[in-house]
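G., before I forget:
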Amino acid sequence: MPRSWRLLVDEGDGRWNMALDEAIALERPRIGRNTLRVYRFSEGTVTIGRFQRAAEAVNLGEAARLGIPVIRRVTGGGAVYHDPRGEVTYSVVIPERELPSSVLDSYRTLCSGVVRAAEILGAEASFSPINDVIACGRKVSGSAQARLSGAVLQHGTLMYASDLDLLAALLRPPREKLAAHGASDIRERVTTISECVGRAVDWREASEAVISGFSEALDLDLREEDPTEAEIRTAERLVEERYSRDGWNLSR
Amino acid sequence: MGIGRRRIRSSLGKTVEVEVAVSRGRISRALISGDFFAFPADVVYRLEEAMTGLPADPEAISRLEELELGGELVGVSLSDVIDAARSALSRALSHEGEE
């Protein structure tokens, strides 16, 4: 029998998006249900992993010149450029006990929703450990987890039409990492669903594929709802105390 | 005071960088950064605290292998972090007195 989850579909700026994801995880014990959130960024935004040094991971001069905010995530992992017209972003909040105990297996389980979404859009896709999904031999999706008081937050991307030249100009991957992936340039390591399948995929089609992808891969019965008042209050507090502060965003 | 940094790429493709500052024969500051994961995040802060105040001696850093992490690093191993820290320390020591 399919499992009943909440579905949230919305749009916000980077601070709000990161705050709401964290708030859903923190409120999970009171909500008592799992959540799939599918959202987009209202403006171009860079997020960085919790443990990254902002100046190492991001070309901060270029970001400032273009007015692109840089937000530190509560999750680990690497830097991401979120394109408001090219990326579907998702988050899942689920208790730790409902996932495989191995972190690698838990990524594989949840990333199966993204793999399925890419397949629905016509791409041959596969999970690439630890936390990527590849299509046409290149990365189209990255995900990141945090574990907060018994709940797992995993959020991630599906690039359907991201501006990859802008992405390459904003992010500074370490040389060692590029060598490990066998590519000399970040631009050669990533692609979009549109580029991969050879036709223009839009937000509507891509976001519906992400919803169907998770529903099919995890056997979910999704009911669209709004965030609770407690989630919104917590998210507002997190924007104020954390995600709008340099003391958090640029702390390393 | 000397400052040293060293970045290591793990076999899983993630990177970790350790920066240490050495002052009067001790590690006065340690920063562990990179695109790895830690569950809970405190594991990283705990490691930084454990490094801070240690004698500026690679042997002291090696003993962190026995530290109770209270969690899990994913993408890099504790050995990767310790290797990077030892290497950062030796760079810090070779720079000491330059500033």
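The interface with chain B takes residues 49-53, 56-57, 74-79, 103-104, 129-131, 144-148, 174, 176-177, 179-181, 252 of chain A (CB under 8 Å). The CA atoms of residues 104 and 129 of chain A lie 7 Å apart.

More on Monday.
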